[in-house]
């Protein structure tokens, strides 16, 4: 399933009331009025101060395997191996080899389905969402994926940029939502970042 093509972003000019496309100079093409205040309002409400409480759905939307089928199959193999192990040790020693195969295959499938590096990245993003400081940000790239089911339902990769004490930082997060395929570079958003390491950041509000 291919994500839909993004629509041209438009705003209503507060001066003349005309719906106009968003230009880089942030001015109405009809009356020349400034669209800066409208663009700033489109950023949405400022993130609340940390620590922030995330719902279970928001946490699960971030902490998810890269390949769900591999991870679930690995969990099944591990569970079967764990059930067979006491029986093999107590009664049927020949089952030990099959039990070891089940446990080994299960471990490898779970590890390939949810790599350790991805787990660490997702936990860092959770820390930023709970404890991060807010910063105005802007989308710099919206990369659309034709086959989202291969990687944890990822449909879109959103790249963004923000500034901390005059120093620019970049961030990137995956999204499973088709609606995000409609977003365009230049859109004003909020980011949250860790004060001790602004390279660890996330977009606010979190997906759910």
Short description:
By secondary structure, this protein is α+β, with helices and mostly antiparallel strands. It has helices spanning 36-41, 56-62, 68-90, 95-113, 116-131, and strands at residues 10-12, 19-21, 133-144, 156-164, 167-175, 188-194, 197-204.
Quick tags:
208 residues; alpha+beta; OB fold (Dihydrolipoamide Acetyltransferase, E2P); 3 domains; five-stranded antiparallel β-sheet; 5 helices
CATH topology of the largest domain: OB fold (Dihydrolipoamide Acetyltransferase, E2P)
Largest sheet: 5 strands, antiparallel
CATH architecture of the largest domain: Beta Barrel
Question: What class, by secondary structure content?
Answer: alpha+beta
Please specify the SSE layout and strand pairing:
Blueprint: E1 10-12, E2 19-21, H1 36-41, H2 56-62, H3 68-90, H4 95-113, H5 116-131, E3 133-144, E4 156-164, E5 167-175, E6 188-194, E7 197-204
Antiparallel strand pairs: 1-2, 3-4, 3-6, 4-5, 6-7
Helix pairs in contact: 3-4
Characterise the protein shown here.
By secondary structure, the chain is of the alpha+beta class. It has 3 domains: 8-42, no CATH class; 68-113; 120-204, Beta Barrel (OB fold (Dihydrolipoamide Acetyltransferase, E2P)), CATH 2.40.50. The protein is built from 5 helices and 7 strands, in the order ββαααααβββββ. The chain has helices spanning 36-41, 56-62, 68-90, 95-113, 116-131, and strands at residues 10-12, 19-21, 133-144, 156-164, 167-175, 188-194, 197-204. The strands form 2 sheets. The protein has a 5-stranded antiparallel beta sheet, covered by helices on one side. A two-stranded antiparallel sheet has the order 1-2. α3 (68-90) packs antiparallel against α4 (95-113). The longest helix is centred in the middle third of the chain and has 23 residues, at 68-90. The relative contact order is 0.17. The mean pLDDT is 82.
């Amino acid at each position: 399933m291919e994500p839909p093509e993004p629509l041209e972003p438009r705003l209503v000019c507060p001066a003349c009331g005309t719906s106009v496309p968003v230009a880089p100079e942030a001015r109405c093409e009809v009356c020349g009025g400034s669209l800066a205040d409208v663009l700033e309002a489109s950023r949405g409400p400022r993130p609340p101060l940390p620590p922030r409480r995330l719902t279970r759905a928001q946490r699960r939307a971030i902490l998810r395997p890269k390949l769900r089928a591999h991870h679930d199959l690995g969990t099944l193999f591990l569970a079967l191996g764990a059930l067979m192990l006491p029986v093999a040790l107590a009664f049927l020693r020949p089952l030990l080899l099959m039990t070891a195969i089940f446990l080994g295959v299960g471990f490898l499938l779970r590890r390939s389905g949810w790599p350790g590096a991805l787990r660490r990245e997702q936990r860092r993003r959770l820390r930023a969402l709970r404890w991060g400081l807010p910063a105005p940000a802007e989308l710099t790239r919206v990369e659309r994926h034709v086959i989202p089911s291969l990687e944890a339902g990822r449909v879109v990769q959103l790249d963004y940029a923000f500034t901390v004490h005059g120093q620019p930082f970049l961030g990137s997060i995956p999204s499973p939502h088709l609606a995000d395929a409609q977003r365009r570079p230049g859109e004003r958003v909020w980011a949250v970042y860790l004060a001790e390491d602004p390279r660890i950041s996330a977009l606010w509000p979190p997906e759910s």
